[in-house]
Design a protein that fits this description.
Responsible for the deiodination of T4 (3,5,3',5'-tetraiodothyronine). It holds the Pfam family T4_deiodinase. Keywords: Oxidoreductase, Selenocysteine, Thyroid hormones biosynthesis. Belongs to the iodothyronine deiodinase family. By secondary structure, this protein is an alpha+beta fold. It has one domain: Glutaredoxin. The protein contains 4 helices and 4 strands; from the N terminus they run H-E-H-E-H-E-E-H. It has a two-stranded parallel ribbon with strand order 1-2. The chain has a two-stranded antiparallel ribbon with strand order 3-4. Strand 3 and strand 4 (about 95-100) form a beta hairpin. The longest helix is centred in the middle third of the chain and has 15 residues, at about 50-65. The chain is globular and about 45 Å long.
Length: about 120
């Protein structure tokens, strides 16, 4: 959750810059019927239908209160498969191309590294 606070601060800092932020809610990383962790704040089964995945994303939205668009990956996991995002990953897309690809989270998820790359791109 600490990373979420840093991300929200970054959203605010860059709100006046010509950049857009987007969160893509992908498949649940630690569902109760999968590789579950006792420390999980949300106790969710792996969604079997899009409606369940959307409900899980809505729980995230309600909790996180992130001020950027949040979209939900399809049940075929197209975004997750294309970007290797499970359980979390950071990207900068510039003119339709990947300008920055962060490491897989949570261990290689680095918002400071993302911000340095973003600053280079927008020349802050």
């Amino acid at each position: 959750m600490h990373q979420l606070v840093i991300f929200k601060d970054m959203l605010e800092r860059y709100s006046k810059h010509p950049v857009d932020f987007l969160v893509v809610y992908i498949e649940e990383a630690h569902p109760l019927d999968g590789w579950s962790l006792d420390s999980n704040q949300f106790k969710l089964q792996k969604p079997k239908h899009m409606k369940e995945r959307v409900q899980a994303a809505e729980m995230f939205v309600e909790h996180a209160k992130v001020d950027c668009p949040i979209v939900v990956d399809g049940m075929e996991n197209e975004a997750n498969n294309a970007y290797g995002a499970l359980p979390e990953r950071l990207y900068i897309i510039l003119n339709g191309n990947i300008a920055y690809e962060g490491g897989k989270g949570p261990l290689l998820y680095d918002l400071n590294e993302l911000e340095l790359a973003l600053k280079k791109i927008i020349s802050v």
